[in-house]
Design brief:
Layout (H helix, E strand, L loop, with lengths): L7 E2 L7 E2 L8 H6 L5 H15 L6 E5 L5 H8 L3 E6 L2 H7 L7 E5 L10 E6 L11 H12 L1 E12 L1 H6 L4 E6 L2 E10 L2 E10 L2 E10 L3 H11 L3 E5 L14 E6 L1
């Protein structure tokens, strides 16, 4: 699910459940986030694949691929790509673009793959949304196990310090004639985003929740997972990471 803020979700008319069985499979998620800058994302993938010096036809895993937009672009760059996501709805849509070197499957990122990959990408804050903190470590171990001997992995996460410094507590976004009322806050080590809106006479409430993991947190997890952190960048142009100013926390490891 390669979209910002992968959450634990609750609809006001439903019991608490995980994001993969609710918000992420609704059309409203895609409506709210339809304005994302995908060209910027493509520039990032151009830069990171060049930096990694991936061989032609390298086997690439797009972990949490959503509807597959970035998997498709990676495939256009000449790579043999598997896009994996827990959302059956998203994979069904992504599969419409499948070809001999672009495949998609439903997969839980906490489970390693039998196949080994030259590069594994976990993009756009697709990490840190599990109920159980141990699952973050489990996911890192699964990524490590799924890499080939000379493979590299990339996690592109928000820079928590910068997010908190620029956090907009409340705002309303109108998309496709729907007014999304959004509240953001930090609580118990998680960044929350509460989303309220009405459509077709119904009221909806969803809550995104992502663990506020810092570089130090990742370093601790990676050490425990036996992972080697090789490089860190602070934006999609691969500029140096600055703790308080960088927009992203991009980590290269193996």
């Amino acid at each position: 699910m390669s979209e910002e803020q992968k959450p634990t979700i609750r609809n006001q008319d439903e019991p608490t459940q995980t994001w993969f069985s609710s918000w992420f499979d609704t059309p409203y998620y895609h409506i709210l986030y339809k304005g994302r800058n995908y060209r910027e994302a493509q520039v990032f993938m151009d830069n990171i694949t060049h930096y990694l010096n991936l061989p032609e036809k390298a086997k690439v895993l797009d972990l949490a691929c959503g509807k597959g937009r970035h998997s498709i672009y990676l495939n256009q760059l000449g790579f043999d790509v598997l896009g994996a996501d827990l959302s059956e709805n998203s994979i069904a849509i992504a599969n419409k673009n499948a070809n001999e070197t672009l495949r998609f499957k439903v997969h839980d990122m906490r489970e390693p793959f039998e196949e080994k990959y030259d590069a594994i990408f976990n993009l756009f804050t697709s990490f840190g949304y599990f109920e159980n903190d141990e699952d973050n470590l489990t996911t890192l171990k699964a990524i490590k196990e799924s890499l080939s001997e000379y493979g590299f992995a990339v996690i592109d996460f928000m820079n928590v310090a910068q997010v908190l410094n620029t956090l907009v507590p409340e705002e309303t976004k109108t998309v496709d004639d729907i007014d999304f009322h959004i509240k953001r806050y930090l609580k118990d080590g998680y960044i929350y985003k509460e989303i309220d809106f009405e459509d077709k006479g119904q009221s909806f409430h969803f809550t995104e929740r992502v663990k506020a993991l810092t570089l130090n947190d990742f370093e601790t997890l990676m050490e425990e997972a036996g992972i080697y952190l090789l490089d860190i960048f602070g934006d999609y142009k691969l500029k140096k990471f600055h703790k308080t100013e960088s927009e992203r926390l991009i980590m290269i490891f193996k």
